[in-house]
Write a structure and sequence with these properties.
Two copies of one chain form a homodimer. Chain A is built from 13 helices and 13 strands. Chain A is an alpha/beta fold. Chain A has an eleven-stranded mixed sheet with strand order 3-2-1-4-11-10-5-6-9-7-8, with helices on both faces.
Chain lengths: 341, 341
């Protein structure tokens, strides 16, 4: 299996991306890792690591920066690692593509150079949100600030298939994010989407509330990219706040300092591991006609390794074929009984 | 100053509401606390407390339950504590009204029996969100699942006035919740509201992101009631998750258990105090023609005491007069230059 890595993607690229690739090559020797980026940069970084068996390198001299305007950049920077990767995927010269770079860039490059699965109206960006009991697959977290009810319906179907096939959750529970748990709660968009999702052959549980995320009450939660983005970033801010509060709480008196001295090396790594995005590595851009995963901009080398693993899992599960088949089978009707979608 | 308490409001009413009233009467002897609820229940509960100077009691035999449909309940239960309280406020027989009961009921009763401030299109429900540096005033958190751009504009004005007058933040910073910090990021609603808010004579900083909440980067953040509700409940779920993870992290080995034994009585109360909704007690339903505050359903007696204090602060600051004046002065124009609102 051939998974390509965008060497230039992420806040700490190319150092940590190359380091992550080397780690992944040892952890998952069955994956052929293809490095996409400027040849000289890749050679220079690889020279720092002696303990690997070499990588296939695909030269791409341009870089789509975090600050670039996505749609514009993918049109003008045709020799960027993102565009080159999508083209390789389109030609089936690779099986999957992972980047921790500009998410909007990956989305735009994916739509333009790789294309959508037949029937998919909008690809969705997803995240595996750490919860009290494992994780919840949340989508859309930012690809679509404005949605229509049938986009949300498609997100529900794609999310359910991803949870079942890739995350190996049998009969995954799916809910739609709303401002109350009872049916009938929601804004107009959610109320309409609810009726469409109900018609899908999935395990739809109705409304989720914000608290269901941390509590881990559902396998999949569907929302629009505006709300999903705010939820994810709210969680990030609260994690930073909690860390700061804990740090303060382990100060002030000798016994609190002792508690901190014991907690930091023993308990804290467990909390960190349970909540770290690095463990997950990458989440898919669902709806594209190929396996495309994106990671957090601040990905560590370990996160890069896990992103490559997550891409492998998605390829192995044939998720693109599953969504393609799912899309072709779904027939839904609107309020008047006319066929939709 | 006369502040009325809905004795029947909250998951632990009437025990903790009466206990909170007794606590408040000692902490804030300058407040005349009026208890609204069934006379016999109030007498029975007050009999458990010997250490108070008595309260004025207003009989209200009916109760709007947490499970009641708000709009329906306030029409049929005219002798409920919520309806009676709003009528007293309307007649200016009390200066402020606080309840930890059914928030939708308070909103519906407020709109029906008290009325809105002239010019206010929709009252907003608010929360003081605990952050790394104090708190952020967040509105709307659930009164309006669907909004229009000019509702958000009014929320921005009301929130700014509340932060300045009641929370005593000089020249408070105001931002609108969006899915990116740059101007131009947002869904259609936010993009339109942004242009309207820019025209207000307030300290508008542009877009906020979810992470700005925990980091405490703004005094006021404006959003629709759908998003605000999800954000608040996401934070609740994450707090529960963090508590559970910490509990686990203080288990497993003797040194971790020692760390927990030291942390729980020393550091943890500080973390709890910094993040507890009980410290804040209540947040206003802004836009009603009177001082109305609501508390969390699970309010403790201490939260009830703080809710009564928060109502006092709102009355002292003349917030209703300030919003009335603010509303009358604001003239905004739409894209074509025509006057709006």
């Amino acid at each position: 299996m051939r998974i390509a890595l965008d060497v230039m993607g992420g806040d700490h690229a190319p150092q940590v991306t190359i380091e992550g690739a080397v780690m992944a090559s040892k952890a998952y020797p069955e994956i052929e890792i293809i490095l996409i980026g400027p040849e000289d940069v890749i050679e220079r970084e690889l020279a720092k690591h002696k303990d690997h068996n070499g990588f296939e390198v695909v030269h791409a001299r341009e870089v789509i920066e975090m600050t670039d305007h996505p749609a514009q950049a993918v049109k003008t920077k045709k020799e960027s690692s993102m565009v080159v990767g999508m083209q390789l995927l389109k030609k089936k010269e690779i099986d999957g593509f992972f980047s921790a770079g500009n998410t909007g860039g990956m989305l735009a490059a994916g739509i333009l150079y790789l294309g959508r699965i037949r029937g998919v109206k909008r690809p969705a960006l997803s995240a595996l949100f750490p919860t009290m009991r494992g994780s919840t697959f949340l989508l859309d977290i930012g690809a679509n600030a404005d949605v229509k009810p049938d986009f949300l319906q498609q997100f529900a179907l794609m999310g359910s298939l991803y949870a079942e096939r890739v995350l190996k959750r049998p009969n995954p529970t799916v809910a739609i994010m709303s401002n109350g748990e009872e049916e009938g709660k929601g804004n107009e968009m959610v109320l309409e989407a609810y009726q469409l999702i109900k018609q899908l052959p999935i395990n739809f549980m109705g409304n989720a509330e914000g608290r269901d995320l941390g509590l881990g009450n559902f396998d999949v939660i569907v929302t629009d990219g505006f709300t999903g983005n705010i939820v994810i970033k709210t969680a990030e801010g609260l994690a930073t706040m909690t860390k700061a509060l804990l740090k303060d709480a382990f100060k002030g008196d000798p016994l609190s300092m002792l508690a901190g001295a014991l907690f930091m090396p023993l308990g804290f790594p467990r909390v960190k591991k349970a909540t770290s995005a690095d463990e997950i590595g990458g989440a898919p851009l669902l709806g594209l006609n190929g396996v495309v995963l994106v990671g957090h901009g601040s990905s560590s080398a370990y996160a890069i390794q896990n992103g490559i693993r997550a891409a492998r899992d998605a390829v192995q599960s044939n998720i693109v074929a599953a969504i393609t088949e799912g899309m072709s089978q779904v027939k839904v009707t609107d309020k008047e009984g006319a066929e939709v979608g």
